[in-house]
Design a protein that fits this description.
Helix content of chain B: 25-40%
Oligomer: heterotrimer
CATH class of chain B: Alpha Beta
Strand content of chain B: 15-25%
Largest sheet of chain A: 2 strands, antiparallel
Bound molecules: thiamine diphosphate, iron/sulfur cluster, magnesium ion
Number of strands of chain B: 9
Shape of chain B: globular
CATH superfamily of chain B: Thiamin diphosphate (ThDP)-binding fold, Pyr/PP domains
Strand order of the largest sheet of chain B: 3-2-4-5-7-6-9-8
Number of strands of chain A: 4
Number of helices of chain B: 8
Distance between the termini of chain A: 18 Å
Strand order of the largest sheet of chain A: 1-4
Chains: A alpha+beta (86), B alpha/beta (278), C alpha/beta (391)
CATH architecture of chain A: 2-Layer Sandwich
Largest interface: B-C, 46 and 52 residues
């Protein structure tokens, strides 16, 4: 099988920055290490997740960051882009 | 709001589950790294997948940090007194049997002050779904020892370490007659959500224990100062064993780093729910 | 897919009517059924058990739900929950169980969920004399749960009134959204007399005031009161997505930590009863028009008092009886009025308590208040009342 041509689901990450309390769950448990902390903080002083440089196409849309977030501050949507050409 | 726009992220102000949340009350009051938020999240997802109109779902909580769950979900929701979530929910469920009633309760709320209602609601097989958030302590009042606190755990009321034997909640739930019994952690979000859905589908008294970090009250004196530390412990030590053969194997000793924690769906039987003969 | 249970079929009317001979506990149960009782949860306790026993048979027969709970903590919580789902709900107990219910009576007051609690009083404190009469839970009924809140309490003096006032209690609970008590006593609960039950349809059942907006669009403000201080109520399953809590809450029902909001809320809980006292109050006056000596008594003791009035009148003395049918709110204005009439010289308070009722009268007047007391197990006789006043 030609893995380079397989259709891997691909996701976009969305964040509600004000809800984040910087628990680290999403960053720690992303299976492909898409996320890192923002440089800036929200109004409570928490750094929130952003997509790490170079990881823009890496999200596999597993939704784990969303499911595990205690604050309902992060979710993903399926991107239309074809992951095989990334 | 002082949120700058970061280049690498889509910043939004609404979550897809917000219709099922009292979103105007977010961010909620729970501490950073507290597992209770994930339980709330899982519950609303299960509602979304249940196929039942949210207007027919009801959430009842008692008192405690876990008890705050009812205040964040956008279904008819009731925050009863400490220990009394179950009988309050029983009143609703028996008067309107067409509602899907879920109780979200803390370990102390459900099995210390509310222990008597727990054993009798299960014995009667009242049609309720019970999610017991076990964070091994009384989080809200500052981390005092509770009925699930591990032996040796330090707390403001056990400065030299807890001497009492903790409950094995799924074992207890099984012994008192629950129709469905499972244990998951907030790390096992997918399996936990499946268990909650199963409870919503199923008649009779259904029980899920969900282990959840309480970094502030339990964690700090017991080497889990961050929620993530306890999540890592779940990751390292949890084994999935559905239908475990001996319920007593479900004993948890989280103070012993080599002690395995068994999670899974353990019991799923038909007993005929309360009042079915009526 | 989640299976939904079919809603229960509508109740088949099987209410009693006409004249019957029955004990107070049973009449109380029939009064509740006539009022459209949907849900009863209770735990057996003498001398109230007959209320539960009667309902275990009669309530399912009219389509309602009877549950015997594991204790009184569960019973009271269950009836509050059922009320949240729209049920007319009841529990029945006696002193020890009433004590266990106190925390959740405050919850019902704070959530403004209507409930009716029957307390057939026995000799107390503690386990006391389980089978014998008492009237010493009067102040507990008013003040037993922590904090300030309003309640209504009826004191029937006969099986007929056990029926009538239990019926009335449900209407009052739904009208004001407060906990309502039927404070019976062992004598009234266990005595059998003729009880006349009106034909169905004669008694009017008050319907709870519901939301005036359809569910779904605008958020429903569960705690926005009308001019009468009582907010409309939406029940579980009606689509309004209510939130109810014992925490201090705003009009939406959401917890809020604010002394101003707290003060306003709790003041309203008290004022709902205080400001409608004239509409709630029920008293009976017996030979009071020309009385210089006013007996004030409730429940079974008022039967002795009434007899004492007759005996005194036979001796040419001007006695009369004021009988509160509602001990809460207390008929304070009427007592003050009598005290200020210039005609009344003294009050006489016989009771099965060491002075709970006297205290209420004493705080309203500087006139002499003669208190004939028994701690429980026996009631003051007419002769004892006459003697006490003479000496
Ligand atoms: C009758 C009563 N007793 C004590 C309390 C104080 N109290 C509030 S929450 C709580 C313990 C809660 O523990 P748990 O149920 O485990 O919930 P958690 O906060 O850990 O989620 C206690 C003792 C109370 N509110 N009411
Ligand atoms: S004290 Fe513990 S249980 Fe309570 S919110 Fe904080 S972390 Fe959660
Ligand atoms: Mg706890």
């Amino acid at each position: 099988m030609d893995l380079s041509r397989a259709q891997v689901p691909h996701g976009l990450v969305h964040v509600i920055a004000e809800r984040c309390k910087q628990c680290d769950f999403c960053i720690s448990y992303c299976p492909v290490d898409v996320l890192e902390y923002s440089e800036d903080t929200n109004s409570k002083g928490h750094h929130f997740p952003v997509v790490a440089a170079g990881k823009e196409q890496a999200c596999v849309f597993c939704r784990f960051c969303d499911l595990i977030c205690p604050e309902l501050a992060i979710f993903t949507s399926e991107s239309q882009a074809d992951a095989s050409d990334g | 709001m002082s949120i700058p726009v970061e280049a690498n992220i889509s910043l939004v102000d609404k979550h897809p589950a917000d219709d099922l949340l009292r979103a105007d009350r977010f961010p909620h009051i729970l501490c950073p790294g507290c597992g209770i938020g994930t339980v709330i999240h899982t519950y609303v997802r299960a509602i979304m997948e249940s196929g039942v109109d949210p207007d027919r779902h009801v959430c009842v909580s008692g008192i405690g940090c876990s008890g705050r769950a009812a205040g964040y979900v956008n279904v008819d929701s009731y925050h009863a007194t400490h220990g009394r979530a179950l009988p309050f929910a029983l009143g609703i469920a028996l008067h309107k049997p067409d509602l899907v009633v879920t109780v979200i309760s803390g370990d102390g709320d459900l099995t210390a002050i509310g222990g008597n209602h727990f054993i009798h609601a299960a014995r009667r097989n009242i049609n309720l779904n019970v999610i017991c958030i076990n964070n091994f302590n009384y989080g809200m009042t500052g981390g005092q020892t509770g009925p699930t606190s591990p032996k040796g755990a330090r707390s403001p009321t056990a400065p030299d370490g807890n001497q009492d034997h903790p409950f094995i909640l799924p074992h207890l739930a099984h012994a008192i007659g629950a129709s469905f019994v499972s244990r998951w952690t907030v790390l096992h979000v997918r399996q936990f959500q499946e268990a909650v859905l199963r409870m919503m589908e199923k008649d009779g008294f259904c029980f899920t224990e969900v282990l959840a970090p309480c970094p502030t009250s339990f964690g700090r004196p017991n080497n889990f100062a961050q929620g993530l530390h306890e999540m890592e412990m779940y990751r390292d030590r949890c084994h999935i064993e559905n239908g475990v053969s001996r319920m007593s194997d479900l004993q948890i000793d989280i103070m012993d780093p080599d002690w395995p924690i068994i999670v899974g769906n353990f019991v799923d039987v038909e007993r005929g729910s309360y009042g079915e003969h009526a | 897919m989640v299976k939904l249970h079919a809603a229960r079929p509508p109740p088949t009317p099987r209410l009693l009517s006409g004249a019957r001979f029955m004990q107070g506990d049973h009449a109380c149960a029939e009064g509740a059924l006539a009022a459209g009782l949907d849900f009863f949860a209770g735990y057996p306790i003498t001398p109230s058990t007959e209320v539960a026993e009667r309902l275990s048979d009669r309530l399912p027969a009219v389509g309602g739900r009877f549950v015997q709970m594991e204790d009184e903590l569960g019973s009271i919580a269950a009836i509050i929950g059922a009320s949240a789902a729209g049920a007319r709900s009841l529990t029945a107990t006696s002193g020890p169980g009433f004590s266990l219910m106190m925390e959740n009576i405050g919850l019902a007051a704070m959530m403004e969920l209507p409930i009716v609690v029957v307390n057939v009083q026995r000799a107390s404190p503690s386990t006391g004399l389980p089978t014998m009469v008492g009237q010493s839970d009067i102040l507990q009924a008013r003040w037993g749960s922590h904090g300030d809140y309003g309640v209504i309490a009826y004191c029937p003096d006969s099986p007929q009134e056990c029926f009538d006032l239990t019926f009335e209690a449900f209407n009052a609970a739904d009208r004001y959204r407060v906990p309502v008590f039927v404070l019976m006593d062992e004598v009234v609960g266990h005595m059998a007399e003729r009880v006349v039950i009106p034909e169905p349809g004669i008694l009017s059942i008050r319907v709870r005031k519901g939301p005036r907006q359809p569910p779904g669009k605008e958020p429903f403000l569960s705690y926005a009161p009308d001019d009468d201080l009582v907010p409309p109520i939406a029940h579980a399953g009606e689509g309004y997505k209510v939130h109810m809590t014992g925490l201090t809450h705003d009009e939406r029902g959401y917890p809020i930590t604010d002394a101003g909001v707290h003060h306003k809320l709790v003041t309203r809980l008290v004022d709902k009863v205080r400001k409608h006292a004239d509409q709630i109050l029920m008293t009976e006056e017996f030979m009071l028009d020309d009385a210089d000596t006013v007996l004030l008594a409730i429940g079974c003791t008022s039967r002795s008092a009434r007899h004492a009035v007759r005996m005194a009148r036979a001796q040419g003395r001007h006695w009369g009886l004021l009988r509160p049918k509602t001990v809460w709110p207390f008929p304070s204005d009427r007592v003050r009025e009598l005290a200020a009439s210039g005609r009344v010289r003294q009050f006489v308070v016989p009771e099965i308590s060491l002075g709970q009722l006297r205290r209420e009268v004493e705080r309203l007047t500087r006139m002499p208040v003669i208190n004939i007391t028994h701690a429980g197990g026996a009631m003051p006789t007419p002769e004892q009342i006459l003697e006490a006043v003479e000496s």
